[in-house]
Amino acid sequence: MPIISLKHKFIIILNPKCASTYLERVFRNFNDYPRKIYKHHKAELVRKILNEDGHNYEDFFVVIVTRNPFDHAISGYYQDMILYMSNRNKSIKNNEKYYKYINDLNAYIMNEKIRHYPGLKKIICENNSTKCLVNKIFKMTEIKKLISFFERKYNIKLEKVSKIINKKQLNLFNHDYKIEDFNEDSKKKIESSYAHEFLFLDDNLYYERNENLIKLV
């Protein structure tokens, strides 16, 4: 579920493939919301649930983590391939869907929805608008900064957790995909689908809680 601290009044929206499992472990002693909520709910739905339960979403400091969309797409690809390989003897449908993409990242990108990732705008904004529902966005490379930020802001001590390594990924794939492995069509699709991520990572996205996202260039 999203990390929600009723005691300290903060929320971490868990962006898929953006250290969400790691953050769950780091903040496990401060996630005190009594109702179980789907881990990757968008900010809009988290707000709806909290308000229905008698809590005011506006009272909470809300953050999210994002990452380079190319790295995100690679991570999503590996997870789908791992799920295929793990279930290849159990699900004929799974076999048919993913067999053709083994060791072909570009075909996967062009023909499939990148694993359960709607994009930053859809996750942090009010439905069908660009109104921002979070206070702060951290880059994936700033996880240590995020942890330090919360420890200082709320005077808390967070868990020290080792980096999570997917051993299945290491064992099942003989190709370690990098950004340079994307062909031009895949690059264009990623850049078009996740434009707000690239703007943010390039420091060209203005965002403010309850205001519209603005492209600065």
Total number of helices:
10
Task: Specify the structural class.
Answer: alpha/beta
Characterize the overall form.
globular
Number of beta-strand segments: 6
Number of domains: 1
| Biggest sheet details | 4 strands, mixed
Estimated radius of gyration: 18 Å
Give the termini distance in whole angstroms.
Answer: 35 Å
* Helix percentage range: 40-55%
Mean pLDDT: 89
The succession of helices and strands, N to C, reads EEHHEHHHHEHHHHEE
Low-confidence stretches: none
Q: What spatial order of strands do you see in the largest sheet?
A: 1-2-3-4
Measured by DSSP, the beta-strand proportion falls in 5-15%
Condensed summary:
With 217 residues, this protein is of the alpha/beta class. 41% of the residues lie in helices and 10% in strands. The chain has one domain (3-215).
Description of the structure:
- There is one protein chain.
- With 217 residues, this protein is α/β, with parallel strands linked by helices.
- The protein has helices at residues 20-26, 43-52, 69-86, 92-98, 105-111, 120-124, 143-154, 167-172, 184-193, 195-201; strands at residues 3-5, 10-13, 61-66, 136-139, 205-206, 214-215.
- It has one domain.
- It has ten helices and six strands, in the order ββααβααααβααααββ.
- A hairpin with a 7-residue loop joins strand 5 (205-206) and strand 6.
- The longest helix is centred in the middle third of the chain and has 18 residues, at 69-86.
- It is globular, with a radius of gyration of 18 Å.
- The protein starts with a strand and ends with a strand.
- The model has no long low-confidence stretch (mean pLDDT 89).
